[in-house]
UniProtKB/TrEMBL annotation, chain B:
Family: Belongs to the sodium:solute symporter (SSF) (TC 2.A.21) family.
GO biological process terms on file: plasma membrane acetate transport
Membrane topology: Multi-pass membrane protein
Protein name: Cation acetate symporter
PANTHER family named among the record's database cross-references: CATION_ACETATE SYMPORTER ACTP, SODIUM/PROLINE SYMPORTER-RELATED
MF annotations from Gene Ontology: acetate transmembrane transporter activity; symporter activity
Transmembrane segment boundaries: 6-27, 47-69, 75-96, 116-133, 153-171, 183-203, 304-328, 340-360, 393-421, 433-454, 460-481, 488-509, 529-547
InterPro entries named in the record: Na/Glc_symporter_sf (IPR038377), Na/solute_symporter (IPR001734), Sodium:Solute_Symporter (IPR050277)
Main location: membrane
């Protein structure tokens, strides 16, 4: 892992593996955990906010702008097209995107935690 | 539809369900097998099982019925039932799996280390489950009556017996197989007839729904009223009656129905002339087709009702008792997430179709607006549009799908509520699980026979509202907020449960009163969910000393990927 090499050397290498810091609930371990939870929460909140804007916005849009609710697409009223069809693939797309992001966050965290000190030693070798 | 085909459909699904259940029994021996299928289920099968279990009679029959009556506003129902899984995925899926809890009370105990909170959660699980089972049994009665003319209670009893046999013999493993089979069964049973229905509709000249009049009978139509009903007649109409109307008996007698309310007794048939407006069940709005096709038209407080429905469905899904058990069958948190995305796709595919049945029903079976049995629209359409043997076969197929819907949802809920009853109320062990199964089924069955008939999707909607007002705050705050305290969780669950529970009881027992209060009681989520969240947060703020001591370890357990070698604590769910 050449890319991680310089960064590992720059950071003070922990005495224990971070997993042990987490196990012993030291300040450092807690900081790692809080950062993981915060990252995942930020992702979840972001997606829920988009969902809320769309889902709460549609009834409001239909209520405020009658032209939208009476709009027809190929003879079918727009609300039926959106709520009866398009919204489902959008849900799946959102879910798929979320899973990718959440797994990436976890992989980043695992790499951060597992890297030291053994991975750091490896990076020092060449 | 001819009775023989319908009965064949019912028998086939029942036999297949029991057979798969009994074949699965060879694998389920220990308690762990009984509950969670030993966690050796593949993602697609698990996702199919989740979908199969989730798509209840409310989805298979209820949505089409409500769309037939209320129109575009009801499109939010399937949207919410799918979107609920997206919220669940994002907020709780992986942490829930990592918690290692089988049931919601397990999660409450693990996270808060409090038996008091566990007990409240147990009571709520049992109440929500019964609320969910009640309409399943009632619509089973409706289906059997539509198909065979059997008394209404027989359907509920049939479903209860088959579920009891399956759960008692096989436990969760066999249930998983059955559920996975039933998702595909339901999808087939809904889509294949629909293809033929749409072809018949095209052949009929593809009529639309844009007129400025309420639904009317196209031609001279005889309506058989199978259960007593009171309707509003909007204009005087000359009919021929065989049976009892407004307390008087007629035998094929012409009669003029004046404007106003009229009561038809059970087993009365009324023949309307062509062009007569369809009288609506008292209290249902007689909207024009144009208003019906547009959202937020026709009903009082429809914007409030829409938002409340959205809140209940999107947030209630995660709190349903039979959903969490399914997550345990994933090997780890990552698989739980991926399974959920698969579930989203399966549900989305299914929910494209019920609305079309509602639309076709508005065109071809408007008399359901009068008999008050809109839930039967999916069953009635094949026989109406496609005559002869073809119509009979398709009718048998949708009937089989409906039976699959009752069986799968009832089995799933029964397993989870029996587990909770066995662990928290009985002594535990496989024998308690069996007693719990019987108890889990008997109470809602008795209620279903005793209570007045309710629209299946409405009651299921109330179960979602209770779940959203109790378990949603517990799960979301439990997973993400370290400062949640024992008194906070206790107070929030109690407040949400009491408020939503009262609204449900009033709505079911007496029917909601009119006006704004009625809207608030029949769709309580918009105010009970914020109240529950607020109570949980404020009480937690006020009792900072009561944060559970193991919260840091629990956060490690909930959020770290399983690949990491860290201490996740020693908590294990109590095995029955």
């Amino acid at each position: 892992m050449l890319v991680t090499g310089p960064r590992t050397r720059a950071v003070r290498r922990p005495r224990y593996p971070v997993t042990r810091e987490i196990d012993e609930q030291t300040g450092l371990g807690e900081a790692y955990m809080r950062s993981l939870v915060r990252t995942q929460l930020r992702l979840a909140v972001r997606l829920c906010a988009v969902l809320a804007v769309v889902v709460a916005g549609l009834p409001l849009l239909f209520a405020m702008v009658p032209a939208v609710r009476e709009q027809e697409v190929f003879g079918v009223p727009l609300p039926w097209v959106v709520l009866g069809g398009l919204i489902y693939p959008w849900f799946v797309g959102c879910g798929w995107w979320y899973v990718r992001q959440a797994e990436r966050n976890e992989a980043d965290f695992a790499e951060l935690v597992d890297r030291s000190p053994s991975a750091g030693d490896r990076a020092d070798d060449p | 539809m001819s009775a023989a085909y319908g009965v064949a459909g019912v028998v086939l699904v029942v036999v297949a369900t029991v057979l798969i259940g009994v074949l699965g029994v060879r694998f389920s021996r220990t308690t762990s097998d009984f509950y969670v299928a030993s966690r050796t289920v593949t993602p697609l099968r698990n996702a199919s099982a989740i979908g199969g279990e989730y798509l209840s009679a409310a989805s298979f029959l209820g949505i089409a019925g409500l769309i037939l009556v209320y129109g575009a506003d009801m499109l939010w129902l399937p949207v919410g039932w799918t979107g609920g899984y997206l919220v669940l995925l994002v907020l709780v899926s992986a942490p829930l799996r990592r918690s290692g809890a089988y049931t919601l009370p397990d999660f409450a105990e693990a996270r808060l280390e409090s038996m008091a909170v566990r007990r409240v959660a147990s009571v709520l699980v049992v109440l929500i489950s019964w609320l969910y089972l009640l309409p399943q049994f009632q619509s089973a009665g409706l289906v059997l009556r539509t198909v065979t003319g059997a008394p209404v209670w027989t359907g509920g009893v049939l479903v209860a017996v088959v579920v009891a046999v399956n759960v008692l013999v096989g436990g969760m493993r066999s249930v998983t197989l059955v559920q996975a089979f039933q998702y595909w069964m339901k999808l087939t049973a809904l889509t294949v007839p629909l293809i033929f229905l749409l072809l018949a509709w095209r052949y009929d000249g593809a009529p639309g729904l844009a007129s400025d009049t309420p639904p009317a009978f196209d031609e001279r139509t005889t309506v058989s009223v199978e259960m007593g009903v009171t309707v509003d007649v909007t204009a005087p109409v000359q009919v021929v009656v065989d049976g009892r109307v407004d307390g008087r008996t007629y035998e094929h007698t012409p009669l003029t129905l004046n404007t106003g309310e009229h009561h038809f007794d059970q087993d009365t048939s009324v023949t309307f002339p062509g062009g007569a407006a369809v009288p609506h069940v008292t209290g249902r709005p007689a909207t024009t087709d144009r208003a019906w096709a547009l959202p937020l038209d026709g009903r009082e407080h429809s914007l409030y009702a829409t938002y409340s429905l959205i809140l209940a469905t999107f947030l209630g899904t995660m709190g349903l008792p039979h959903v969490l058990v399914r997550f345990y069958t994933n090997p780890d948190g990552r698989a739980a997430r991926r399974t959920t995305v698969l579930v989203l796709s399966l549900l989305g595919a299914f929910y494209l179709f019920p609305a079309l049945y509602g639309v076709l029903g508005r065109l071809y079976t408007p008399e359901l607006l009068m008999t008050g049995r809109a839930d039967a629209v999916v069953l009635t359409l094949p026989g109406r549009l496609i005559g002869g043997v073809g119509g009979d076969l398709l009718g048998a197929l949708v009937t089989g799908g409906a039976v699959a819907a009752f069986l799968s949802t009832s089995s799933g809920i029964t397993v989870s509520v029996a587990g909770v009853l066995a662990q928290d109320i009985l002594r535990g062990g496989v024998r308690s699980f069996r007693a719990g199964t019987l108890l889990a089924l008997a109470v809602p069955l008795a209620l279903a026979i005793a209570a007045r008939h309710l629209a299946v999707a409405d009651v299921v909607g109330l179960a979602f509202a209770v779940a959203a007002s109790t378990f949603c705050p517990l799960l979301v705050l439990g997973v993400w907020w370290r400062r949640l305290t024992v008194p906070g969780a206790f107070a929030g669950l109690t407040a949400g449960g009491l408020l939503a529970g009262t609204a449900v009881i009033v709505t079911i027992a007496t029917g909601p009163p009119g006006g704004a209060l009625g809207a608030m009681l029949s769709e309580p989520a918009a105010w009970t969910v914020p109240v529950a969240f607020t109570v949980m947060i404020v009480v937690s703020w006020c009792t900072p000393g009561r944060v559970p001591p193991g919260v840091a370890r629990m956060m490690v357990r909930l959020h770290t990927p399983e690949t990491l070698d860290v201490d996740r604590g020693t908590w294990r769910p109590k095995r029955v």
